[in-house]
Amino acid sequence: MINFNYETDFVLENESLYEGWINKVIISENKLLGELNYVFCDDDYLHKINVEYLNHDTLTDIISFDYTEGNIISGDVFVSIERVKDNATDFNVSFADELKRVMIHGILHYCGYKDKTSNEASIMRKKEEEKILLFHVEQ
């Protein structure tokens, strides 16, 4: 089950399309869907979570809490729409593609991918690109 929650004025268009894509990504990693909760929010909302739960006094685009057990992918994914908009401008990509990258980034963490080292980050970027392409196949 995938739930989309909104703590800002942003609303994801065509939730079912995103739900199908996320499920396809999970299956492509030989995992099963448990329960995922996406929370779309603003910088202030995510900053408070970052300080309270992670002790990081910084802005970020995504925070994910992983509740995965074995091959069943579950978790809470918080996405700052403000950060996604800024990132899209900084990386010269569309907002839609940057949103997909951030949304799937959390899922890839749940699948076991890391991004702490430069090698891990490189693998994560490749996986993000690979999974974004699965979205385009959906359409």
Automatic annotation (TrEMBL):
Cofactor: Zn(2+)
Family (UniProt): Belongs to the endoribonuclease YbeY family.
Keywords, in A-Z order: Cytoplasm, Endonuclease, Hydrolase, Metal-binding, Nuclease, Ribosome biogenesis, rRNA processing, Zinc
Regions that span the bilayer: none
Function of the molecule: Single strand-specific metallo-endoribonuclease involved in late-stage 70S ribosome quality control and in maturation of the 3' terminus of the 16S rRNA.
Location within or outside the cell: Cytoplasm
InterPro entries per UniProt: MetalPrtase_cat_dom_sf_prd, YbeY
Top EC class for this record: hydrolase
Gene3D superfamilies given in the database record: Metalloproteases ('zincins'), catalytic domain
Name of the featured protein: Endoribonuclease YbeY
PANTHER family found in the cross-reference section: ENDORIBONUCLEASE YBEY, CHLOROPLASTIC
Record-listed E.C. numbers: 3.1.-.-
Pfam name, any one: YbeY
Binding site for Zn(2+): H105, H109, D115
Free-text cofactor note: Binds 1 zinc ion.
Keyword Hydrolase: yes
